Amino acid sequence: MNNIKLALLSILFLGVVVLVSFITKKLSALRDPLQVWEALNNVGLLPIRVRAWIFSTVVGFANPYSRSINFRITELRKGKSCGVMRETKSISNPFRCVHAAALITFGETVGGLAVFTLLGKKDRAILTNINAEYIKVSRGLLTASSVVQPLKDRNVKEVINEVLIKNAAFETVAKLTLTWRVDLKDA
């Protein structure tokens, strides 16, 4: 019985080592978050929740401040990003709701991923403005989503996207408008 447990632990350890090696190789491709997302989704042995946790951890390496909130990216496609964040004591304000700075960080991360999925390897984008409208007190499980139209005009210098943050009852609690300055290189 002990030999079986030892063999299972050895296999699990080996799997973790291979996974860490795989992720560190993909970190170099973080300029294209969609490539990392799809690579993780091609690892069929991992449950979806584990893949979402790994991807969110990888995003935390690229954007260290996003590690201050506990979020998970649940969907990532060209021009679209969705994520969830649960209210915790560390992101709550004295009024027992999610702090505005945590909402901004959550929205910026989700909106930024939607924008970055549309960029090429040499393209750049930097956030220049955030406008936040707080509609309702934010408590519990929150979902953020952002959709960005494809960049058809390569001469565009600014991209504006909207991020909606909703609560578990699907009520909009915050609406963020993000303005990105983009530098699109020749394809």
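The record above closes out task 2.4. Task 2.5 opens with a second protein, given below.
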Amino acid sequence: MSSALSPNRSVIRSRYIYVSVLLLSLFIPSIYPTVQSYTSTIWQSIASITTNLATLATSSMSNSSPPTDPLRTPVYFLGIGGPNFIENTAHPAYAELAAIGQEITTKVKPKAIVVFSAHWQDGPNKISINVAEHTDLIYDFYGFPPHYYEYKYPNKGSPAIAEKVIEKLEGVGIEVERVERGLDHGVWVGFMAAFDPQKNPLNVPIVQVSLFGNEDPDQHYRMGQALESLRDDGILIIGAGMAVHNLRDFRATRASGETMPYAFSFDEALKEAATARPEERRAKMLGLMKRSDARKAHPSLEHILPIYLAAGAARSDSGARLFTLCEGPISWAQYRFGEVARA
């Protein structure tokens, strides 16, 4: 019986196959455009996603370098000479200060300058700040020809910037006195070289702040740290002093032209400390004054203290020595902490 039904089952199976093929042949033409449309849409979506991913990858690669904040300023320590430096325009340090001044006015482009000079110290735990907009220069030097006391350097202060400085300092418990005081020669003599009023005018407010009236490098370093955030407002912090400064030996070396050995040794030690990794810099700079040549390089510390303040304001930015020249009992080293934003 089974063998009798077998041919019939084969016929039925063949008919089912025939009907199925027939039905597919009828339906395929009707559904093909829809399938084709969906397929086309899917491929277009894939192509769009691929294009967007490629664009994003290209953008990421082009921006792979660390972003720089065009507003954040570096910090400078400028080696500024005495009054006779005004007319010593052939001196190598004069040209270097002029170059740094050009860098500041054309690339840094600060909104204002806050400057600390070796020639203004206040109390052991108190500082003073000029809050006046217009003041006269201070000729705080003696025994020079009369025309030295007739030099002018156009400048203006900023009560608003001064109040920003005061807010930062009082915020960390530093006592601040508001005064009306002009720029001393520790600022304006060097600024005449860096920011020549005719060739490279500064055209931004200058606010001078005193040092503490003590010889505590770490206290000045911490004051610099308190002012770091001013840099985010486009305010440039400058410490003005000398890397090596021994006036006691100045007369002795002026006749012989000899450069004192301590000038070379301390100058290099300062470079090693100031350009150390930021996390190591503070300890290394504090160690400087424990060196055997420290008090020869600086019988008193007012000319070295401004670089402690500058280094403190630099925080995590690295230091670089831009120039140095040891001459007699002094060094004309110039430093910058932080990078200059690309134009």
